[in-house]
Design brief:
The structure is a homodimer of 425-residue chains.
Chain A lengths: L7 H19 L5 E3 L6 H5 L31 H11 L6 E3 L4 H15 L15 E6 L3 H9 L3 E8 L2 E2 L1 H10 L3 E6 L13 H9 L8 E5 L17 H7 L6 E6 L11 E4 L2 H14 L5 H11 L2 H30 L6 E2 L8 E4 L5 H10 L2 E3 L16 E4 L6 H23 L3
Parallel strand pairs in A: 1-12, 3-4, 3-6, 6-7, 7-8
Antiparallel strand pairs in A: 2-9, 4-5, 8-9, 10-11, 11-13
Chain lengths: 425, 425
C-alpha cells in the first residue's frame, strides 16, 4: 500500500515495527562498505593469469622497441590499436597512458587552464570565470576536479536518454564562459543511463559560444554490461567530426575495471589535432607511460573480442548482485511508493532517489548500523543535492549475503525516514 | 702541444690531417645515438628477474591491502619505507607514485601555479612573474618544465662543489618573485658535480624574499656511483628543518635507472606539512599509483643495502665506458688544451666544454658522420648556452666498441673546429 495514503495510525504502527528491525540491525555490529565501485576479489582473480611473465615475453613491442627502456610517449602500438578498437577510432587518434584515466582528465583540464586548448589559444586562467556543465546526478570525482581547479559547475538534470539537451543547448549557445562538460555516456555513474544517439548527435552539433568547448567523454563503462553484449552507441568523435566540430570530443577509458583497478592502462582518444596538442603537453610533463604494463595488457587481451569475452566473466559475477538488490527493493518497497531505483544494464552503480530531503538521514542511519553508503550529496557538484534525494549504491564489492543484509538495512532506514516525514516527526 | 701557441703552418697541417680523418668517418655510415642517458641492454637485463611473479606473491601489501584493487594514494608501506631509507627520512615523509619523478615535478609546479604551495597560500598564477634559479649547465627536461609553465629562468653557474652560492644568496634575498630552484645534487646532470655539505647548508639556511621558496632536489643519481659506495651527502630535508625552513626541500628520485626506465617507481620526500599538501593535490588528480609495480619493486629490493648491491652491478657495466671516454680524451686532447671534460664519479653523463662558440658546430659535424650528441645549448635554459661551449655526452647506451669510435669522431670534430677558430677560418 502507498504510504502517502495510509492512516496516521497505520503509519505509526509501521514505524514501530521498522524501528524494532532497525534496533536489531544496530546490535549486529555490521561492517559493510558500499561507498565505492570496487571490483570484488573474485573479479580481480579473473585477471591473475595476466601476471604470468609470458605476457611480457622478450619485452619487445610490435615496433621492435624494448619496453624496458625509455621511449614512446604516446604508448606502444599494440595498446593504441586495442584502445582504437574499444573507442572505434584509428590508433593514431589514441594516446595510451599510465594507470588512471582520471589523472589524464585532471592533467588535460589543468593544461587547458595553464596553456590553453590548442596552439596559440588563450589559457583558461587568462579568460576570467570558466564554467562546466555537470549532468546530475554524476560522478563525484569529476566534480572534485572542476571544483578544485576553480571551474564553476552548472547542474543539468539527466533523463532516461542522457542529459537534458534543451537546457544544455540553451546554456552553451549564450555563455562563452562555459568551456566544457562532464559525461559518463554509457551505464552512467550513478544512474546507469545510456546516452541515446539523438542526444549524442545534439551534443556534437550544438552551437557553442565558446569556440574551444570540450566534452570530457568518460567512457569508463563502455564494455561493462551486466548481461549480453555492450550497448551500441553512436561514436561521439565521428559525430563531432561530421558536425564540423572535430576537436570537441575528448574520450577516455581505462582497463581499471577490466583487469586491476589502479594497475591497469588508461587512454584518451580525440581528433588528430587534439592528440598532437596533448602530446605537446605530455612530452614536457612526463617521461612516458609504463610500457611493460602496456605490453602485458596488449598481449593478454590481443583484441576487442577478447576484451568483451573477459567482460562477460565480470558480468557473470556482477549481475546476480545487481539483480538481488533490485529484487529486495521490489520486495520491500514496490508497494510503498517512497523510493525510486535505477535498473541498470551495466556499470557499477544503482542510483536511488528517496522522497524529498531524506537522503542524508538515510545514509546517516545506515552508517550507525555499520553499513556505509556514499555520502548523500556526493553525486552532485559541491556535494549539494538540491533535493537531498539521491544515494549511490555500489553493489560490486560485498559478497551477496552481505549485500542482502546491507540493502535490507537501507530499506528499513528509507521506511523510517519516509514515515517520519509523512508524520511530520 | 698547446694549439694556442702553435704556428699557423703547423695548425694548417694538423687541420688537413684531421679533415682527412673526418672524411673517413663521413664514409663509414655510422649510426650511434648518444643523446640521452639510457641504460644499455646489459643493464636492463640486471633486473629481468624482477618480472618473476614471485615478487608479487599473493598481491598483499604489508598492511594487508590487496594491491590489485583501488586504494592507498601515498603508496604501499613497504615502498615508502624503502624510499625512506634512500632519502634518509621517515616513511611518513614519502609519497611513492607512478613511473616518473619528472611527472611529479611537473605536477607539483603546476599545482603551485594553480593552487599555491600550501593551504591558504596564493597560487603563483596570481602573483605576477615567477622565476626559478637554474644551475648551469643542467638538465634539459627541468628547464623545459619551467619554460613551458611560463616561469622565468635565471642561470647560475655550477662550480666543482655545487652552484655558485654567493650569487644565489644575493638573488633570492632581494627578489620575492624567485620562487624556486632546480638541482641535481649528486652526480649532477651533466657535470657530475656532487654538491658539498657546505653548499647544502647554505641552500638550507639562506634568506629568501619569497616565503614559499622551494628547492626541487632531483636526487636522480643518489645511488648511481661508478665505483665503490654512493657519495655521502648532507640530507637537505634535515638541513632545512634545522635552519627553520622545513618546507623548503622537495626531494625526488625514481628507480628508472635502477630497474627499468619508464617502468619503475618514483617518489617524493618532504616535510610532513608539504606531504599533506601534496596529498591534498594528488587525491583529486589521480586514483593512486600502480601498487602491483610498487609491490614488485619493494619485494625485489627489500632494503637499501640490496639497492646499493644492485647498483654496483650497474657500475660494473657503466664504469669501463666512462673510463674509456676519459682515456680517449686524454690520448687525443690532453696536450692540445682546447677541451675541458668532467671526470664524474657517478651519474650518466660526461660534460665537455669546447673553446668559445664551438659546441654547436662540433655537434653538427658529428651528426653528419651519423654520431648523435645532445644538441648544443640544451643543457641551458631556453636552449641557449651563452658561450656555446657545453656538450653533454651520454656514454651508457652504446657498446664500448661503438663508444670508442663515437668519441674519436667527437675529438676530430673538436680539433677541426678549434683549429679553424684559431686560424680565423
Amino acid at each position: 500500500m502507498k504510504y502517502a495514503i495510509m492512516s496516521q495510525k497505520d503509519l505509526n504502527k509501521l514505524l514501530e515495527t521498522e524501528k524494532e528491525k532497525y534496533s536489531e540491525y544496530l546490535n549486529m555490529n555490521l561492517k559493510y562498505d558500499m561507498t565505492r565501485g570496487k571490483p570484488s576479489v573474485k573479479q580481480l582473480a579473473l585477471s591473475d593469469d595476466m601476471m604470468s611473465d609470458r605476457y611480457v615475453g622478450n619485452y619487445k613491442a610490435s615496433n621492435g622497441l624494448d619496453c624496458r627502456n625509455y621511449g614512446i610517449l604516446e604508448g606502444i602500438p599494440e595498446i593504441r590499436s586495442l584502445f582504437g578498437e574499444i573507442f572505434g577510432v584509428a590508433p593514431e587518434q589514441v594516446i595510451a597512458g599510465g594507470n588512471s584515466s582520471l589523472n589524464i582528465m585532471y592533467d588535460l583540464i589543468s593544461a587547458f587552464l595553464l596553456l590553453g586548448t590548442a596552439k596559440d589559444s588563450t589559457p583558461w586562467v587568462k579568460q576570467g570565470e570558466i564554467k562546466f556543465i555537470c549532468p546530475v546526478p554524476g560522478y563525484d570525482r569529476h566534480f572534485a576536479i572542476t571544483e578544485r581547479l576553480g571551474i564553476k559547475m552548472i547542474n543539468v538534470n539527466i533523463n532516461d536518454d542522457g542529459p537534458d539537451m534543451d537546457v544544455i543547448e540553451e546554456l552553451v549557445k549564450n555563455d562563452a564562459s562555459i568551456k566544457g562538460m562532464w559525461s559518463v555516456p554509457k551505464y552512467s555513474n550513478p544512474t546507469g543511463v545510456v546516452y541515446s544517439d539523438e542526444v549524442i548527435r545534439r551534443l556534437a552539433k550544438m552551437e557553442c559560444a565558446a569556440d574551444d568547448f570540450r566534452i570530457i567523454w568518460d567512457d569508463a563503462y563502455s564494455v561493462h554490461m551486466l548481461e549480453g553484449e555492450p550497448a551500441k552507441q553512436l561514436n561521439l568523435i565521428d559525430a563531432c567530426k561530421e558536425a564540423g566540430n572535430p576537436d570537441r570530443a575528448i574520450v577516455l577509458a581505462s582497463t581499471s575495471k577490466m583487469t586491476y583497478p589502479g594497475a591497469g592502462i588508461s587512454a584518451v582518444a580525440s581528433s588528430i589535432d587534439n592528440i598532437n596538442w596533448f602530446k605537446y603537453v605530455f612530452t614536457i610533463q612526463t617521461i612516458g607511460p609504463n610500457k611493460i604494463n602496456q605490453l602485458r595488457h596488449a598481449n593478454y587481451f590481443g583484441n576487442y573480442d577478447n576484451v568483451v569475452a573477459h567482460m562477460k566473466k565480470h558480468a557473470e559475477i556482477l549481475n546476480p548482485k545487481f539483480k538481488r538488490v533490485i529484487q529486495i527493493f521490489e520486495e520491500e518497497l514496490s508497494e510503498a511508493d517512497i523510493l525510486k531505483w535505477s535498473n541498470p544494464k551495466g556499470g557499477y552503480f544503482i542510483s536511488i532517489d528517496t522522497v524529498y530531503n531524506c537522503a542524508s538521514e538515510v545514509v546517516a542511519m545506515a552508517k550507525k548500523c555499520g553499513v556505509l553508503f556514499t555520502e548523500a550529496g556526493s553525486t552532485f557538484p559541491y556535494r549539494k543535492d538540491p533535493e537531498n534525494k539521491n544515494i549511490r549504491i555500489a553493489p560490486s564489492m560485498p559478497p551477496i549475503e552481505e549485500l542482502e543484509v546491507a540493502i535490507r538495512v537501507l530499506c528499513v532506514c528509507v521506511k523510517i525516514c519516509s514515515i517520519e516525514k509523512l508524520l511530520d516527526k
